[in-house]
Amino acid sequence: MKRNFFVLLSVFVLASMLLAACGAPAAPATEVAEPVAPAAEEPAAPAAEEPAAMPEFVADKYEAPDCEYGGIIKSIEAVDAYTVKFTLCAADPAFPSKIAFSSFAVQPKEHLEATGGSPLENPVGTGPYQVAEWKRGEELIFKAYDGYWGEKAKATTLVFRWQSEAAARLLELQSGTVDGIDNPGPDDFAVIEGDANLALINRPALNVFYVGFTNTFAPFDNELVRQAIAMSIDRSRIVDNFYPAGSEVASHFSPCAIPGACEGEDWYAFDPAKGKELLAEAGFADGFATKLFYRDVVRGYLPQPGVVAQDIQAQLKENLNIDVTIEVQESGTFLDNADSGALDGMYLLGWGADYPDMTNFVDYHFGAGSSKQFGNKFDDIVVTLKDAASLAMDSDRAPLYAKANDLIKQHVPMIPVAHGGSAVAFKATVEDGHASPLGNEYFAVMGNGGDTFVWMQNAEPISLYCADETDGESLRACEQVTESLLRYEVGGTAVEPALAESYEANTDLTEWTFQLRQGVTFHDGSAFDANDVVASLVLQWDATHPLHKGNTGAFSYWSGLFGPFLNAPAE
Amino acid sequence: MSPEKKTTVANLDAEGITLESVSLWQTTWRRLFKRKSSMVGLAIILIMIFIALTAQWLAPYDPYQVLIGKEEVKMRQAPCIHLLGCPADQPQHIMGLDGNVRDQFSRLLYGTRLSLLVGFSTVTLAIVIGTVLGAISGYFGGWVDTIIMRLMDVLLAFPSLLLAIAIVTVLGPGLINALLAIGIVSIPAYARVVRASVLSVREMDFVSATRALGGNTYEILFGRILPNALTPLIVQGTLGIATAILDAAALSFLGLGAQPPTPEWGAMLGSERNQVFTAPHLVFYPGLAIMIVVLSFNLLGDGLRDALDPRLAHASS
After folding, report:
1. Predicted TM-score of the model (pTM)
2. Do residues B220 and B211 make contact, with C-beta atoms less than 8 angstroms apart?
């Protein structure tokens, strides 16, 4: 027994040594293949030390040799001190929405170099607050930045605290030690609403919960069967009974807060008689037996998976005489099976927005590049979405999304059920308290009449370098300190200017030029210019960049939104 | 009974055995009757059996009926008992409503049926297979004994619940499969008990006599030895029902046993375990039901053991 253990151990050690040995030569190889990038990087260094001296500005440019590497960025360049230009490999109408995301916030180039590419606890930004002190495990203290270019923060000190238990958060709010809390428990909504000293604000739901079908398995290969089921699930019964306040029955696949999402007809009304008729027409007058898969994981879009699964089971039995066997799978297995189209029945899944654009919802699920999660793709939907994605203006895209939504309704690849809501709660005296659909509440506009504003969220931030964080609790903290070229409006999803005053794109949406705001200073007093933007983004983009360190080095949002890294190590 | 037999049955050996076993059951019953705890256990079991048989008349609702739209009720509503001051205009739900807005009391009653079914059937399965294996092993000895008993040792080496989980994983989740798994896992206990008592009975005079009279193996083993080796099996079986019910509830709790919407106690507990603070009635009652049933079988089993074994009875009383 013991000997086996040691044999196993030594095999592991050997294997890891082999892996390390194979990994090492791969890196130099790609560096050799990419001489353009580092060469362009070096001459910029002296110029950046004197950013104030305008005539001496040496613009940084970073360019991929070609688009073969798989990502959508071709080049990022500082045209002059206050102009940044992005060249893309393919048209991307959602580019402004993506670049506004807080992972792409700008920090001074010098600061990034000084911290070796991982300013985990001491970010320097341009935002209304700067980090004053982070007592790990206790609290995170920000103080207002006097030199902020926009409207100054109302409270001079902002404190973040955290508590994982919803009941304990509410207790703190009730006792008055904090001014606002995130995610009160659904059972406590009534308590908060009934308390004159507190205010409950529902967070609009930017997600969708759906019942998917794999259309390669009988009887779900029959469109009539899918339509029949779509009409025979009482979705408002599910939302009314099993979802917290602030949730909505889904009228379309994408939540209506996203431009273009709710064009076209509303989803089928609940009509079990019609459903029964359709099912009979399809040849299943007496129903059939099938399976319903789900993973027992609580998400904002599906707060009670087991209960909802059982209710759908009961409804299908009652309305269509379909016998449903419920099968729970482990989360990872379930997602793999769904993606590969291996679930031979129906399944419960959902989606939360990364950035507020239709492409993040419909293209991901029904577009040309979507997985096999619904079985075979529907060509007419694919074509319509492709046309829509190549247009820039929301008004031009709207009719196409109306068509796409109608096609989705006709083909029923899945049944959109709900947009799950959550909430935040404040003291009633807090001015401009709000909840953001993207989870980035902006505290500079909130005031409680005093100097210190205390916010309590679910968990401690992991780090404050959000280029390499995906956790909402971390992102919210970063968003008080650092800013991106653009930002989402307070409490909404529309994109508005931030560090860039304006932007424009060429007609085929492959070149985006941003005019930067002048006279902006960082918290450390240094001036903001185009090279800071290039530096902040390039170190994420290029996997071999000396500052491509971050916290774990994953930079998930970059690869998620812009595709593979430049010089990505071969797997 | 005995006088008639005396005149009709010629075989003295058989007569002796019959007489002894009759008096054994009588004394056992007498001893058992004297122990209050085992009588309480027996009473509870009888009540449970009654509930299980009459669940469809006792239950106020269909256990699968979702009450949304049928009544003015909410998900996970607390119990409403008219006798205890719940307004009469509200529908009565003695144990409240579960997460899917079904009557918890009705589900609990139907759950009795399932739990007892699981308990009796798994133990029956295990006893039948275990007895055959143990008897063969004990009677023949030699390499047969070695092979069977080492096999049983291997089964015993695994923690029983873990082994059951492994079996269910292979067979696929479901009540029947869980039942099979628990049955298989509990075979070794019975096989060992039977083997031990067969070994002790095998060399007794009446067995030798039957052998001398030319009885074949089948007759000796199943006609003479086994009937006289059964008493420890009864004790083991009664206690085993308790374990089986507990194991089945554990498997269902983990989602490997009864599948939704089946009203199984363990599954009911498992699906509402996160609501232990907000809706305690949903975990309290199924938990209590499991406890009562298991306790009653344990009480009865303990009583039976003491009653069947005079030495132990004296020691414990």
Report:
1. 0.72
2. yes
ipTM of the complex: 0.78
Contacts of A290 in chain B (CB under 8 A): none
Comparing alpha-carbon positions, the chain A residue that sits nearest to B68 is: A237
- Kindly list the residues from chain A whose CB atom is less than 8 angstroms away from the CB atom of residue B75: 241-242, 307
pLDDT by residue for chain A (571 residues), tens only, comes to 456 666 666 666 566 655 555 544 433 333 333 434 443 444 444 444 444 444 567 888 888 888 888 788 999 999 999 999 999 988 888 888 889 988 899 999 999 999 988 899 999 999 999 999 999 989 999 999 999 999 999 999 999 999 877 778 888 999 999 999 988 877 788 889 889 999 999 887 788 999 999 999 988 999 999 999 999 999 999 998 888 877 889 999 999 888 888 888 999 999 999 999 999 999 998 989 999 999 887 777 888 888 899 999 999 999 999 999 998 888 888 888 988 899 999 999 988 887 788 888 888 888 877 788 899 989 999 889 888 877 767 788 889 999 999 999 999 999 999 998 888 999 999 988 998 888 889 999 998 888 999 999 988 988 999 998 877 888 899 999 999 999 998 888 888 999 999 999 988 888 999 999 999 999 999 999 999 999 999 999 998 999 998 888 888 788 777 878 888 876 5
Which residues of chain A neighbour B278 with C-beta distances below 8 Å? 185, 187
Calculate how close chain B gets to A168, using CA atoms only, in Å.
13
DSSP per position, B163-192: HHHHHHHHH-SSHHHHHHHHHHHHHHHHHH
> What CATH number does domain A56-119+483-571 carry, 1.20.120, 1.10.8, 3.90.76, 3.80.10?
3.90.76
User: In angstroms, how far is CA A110 from the centroid of its own chain?
Assistant: 29
CB of A333 within 8 Å of a chain B CB? The answer is no
Parse chain A into domains and list their residue ranges: 56-119+483-571, 127-205+421-481, 207-419
Which residues of chain A are within 8 Å of residue B260 when distances are taken between CB atoms? Answer: 306, 309-310, 313, 326
A511-516 and A83-88 beta bridge pairing: antiparallel
Cα(B102)–Cα(B59) distance, integer angstroms: 12
Q: Quick check: A141 contacting B, CB < 8 Å?
A: no
- Cα–Cα distance between A319 and A234 in angstroms, integer? 10
Query: Rounded to a whole number, what is the distance in Å from the CA of B282 to chain A's nearest CA?
Result: 13
Looking at the partner chain, which of A167, A242, A325 has a beta carbon nearest the beta carbon of B75? A242
Q: Is the peptide bond before A219 cis (omega within 30 degrees of 0)?
A: yes
State the Cα angle at B267 between B265 and B270, rounded to 5°: 110
∠ Cα A345 A350 A356 (to 5°): 145
Chain B residues touching residue A187 (CB < 8 angstroms): 278
Omega before residue B261 within 30° of 0, cis: yes
A327 vs B contacts (CB less than 8 Å): 173
Q: b or e along A259-276 (b: 16 or more beta carbons within 10 Å of the residue's beta carbon)?
A: bbbbbbeebbebbbeebb
- Domain A127-205+421-481 belongs in CATH node 3.30.420.40: no
Whether A207-419 and A56-119+483-571 are alike in CATH topology: the answer is no
Say yes or no for a CB contact (<8 Å) between A307 and B100: yes
Report yes or no: A390 at the B interface, CB cutoff 8 Å. Answer: no
Cβ atoms of residues A334 and A184 within 8 Å: no
CA distance A450 to A445: 13
Would an 8 Å CB–CB cutoff place B50 in contact with chain A? no
Alpha-carbon distance B255 to nearest alpha carbon in chain A (angstroms): 8
User: Is A207-419 a domain of CATH 3.10.105.10?
Assistant: yes
CB contact, 8 Å: B101 with chain A? yes
Query: What is the rounded CA–CA span in Å between residue B301 and residue B104?
Result: 30
